[in-house]
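Entry for the shared binder. Reason: the reviewer on the internal report wants the predicted structure included alongside the sequence.
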Amino acid sequence: MKRMLHLVLFVGLLSLLSVAGLQGQTDDSVVCPTFQRQAFNGFSTACAGTEAGEYCYGYNSVVATQAENAPIEDFTLGDRLAIDEIESITSQPYSREDDQWGLSLLRLPDVNASEPNLRYILFGGVEIADTDEPDATFSPLQSFVFATAEENACVDTPSTLFVQSDCDFDARQFRAEGVNFTIDGAAVITGGGETGFINVQVIYGLVYIEPDVYSDGVAEPGDVTERITVPVGYSVTAPLNFGEPITSEDRVGDWSEITPLTAEDLANLTFLRSIPQNFGYCPILIPTIRQASGVGDVQETLRFSSVRPLQPVIPLCGVDAPPEFCTYLGLT
């Protein structure tokens, strides 16, 4: 009888330990992916059919403001607003306690009747505000300042600004923090605000950066005017002085050398594959790093399941002296 009682107590203790162990694992392995799927499903339904020149409130905890930072009242899930009515957008980061994760879709007005412009998706803790630049070449919110939250409660629900062009058309331009960008594909942008940096990770095609081409269009002595080419699978970073105006050359510092995304970087981007298909211009295919061993050092290359993310890069590599990144991308 005593032995049976000990066995019952032991089994009960194991049950308690198992429950405690599962509870300790729920944050990343259970709760977050489940919540993410729920959020994306709601997002896909709420913002289906969003048209050019519209902003859609796709999941909870997003605030849009008009001039003078006046919040737009009665703005609920699935509502759409004309972009030219919006001065800024603020979405909240993922919170397990509050069951929130700000998600929204922004489509810039089409270039013409047949050519689409850029799309943005705001994930989690993102602030974006129009710069009000009197430039006819940019639509509202095509020139902006931004900020993303630096800490994320879960890798599957990060705080990022996702910018994409239609891969079947020409590259498109936008201006972030007073710097000109040209994008032919898709990229994730983080930093901004008081973070002290801007980071760009390219996940499709190419991004070109004009480091010292500012809104006044005037190149000063000593300016770095040669554009930076950032291909898929690479990132680049620059320091940001939030206290300087966007027209100042001291606002954004020198850009780093382009750097291949690490295995951890790529793993942290897998959430992008869950973007609703009706919101994406181009297929989001996160590559893997392949280590090919042979004579000498181990050589790493990126491996893609499709050639499509590489198509904008291929012409740059079909020359006599291709850039170094062509080897890493398997294009030489």
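Summary line for the report: The chain has four helices and 17 strands.
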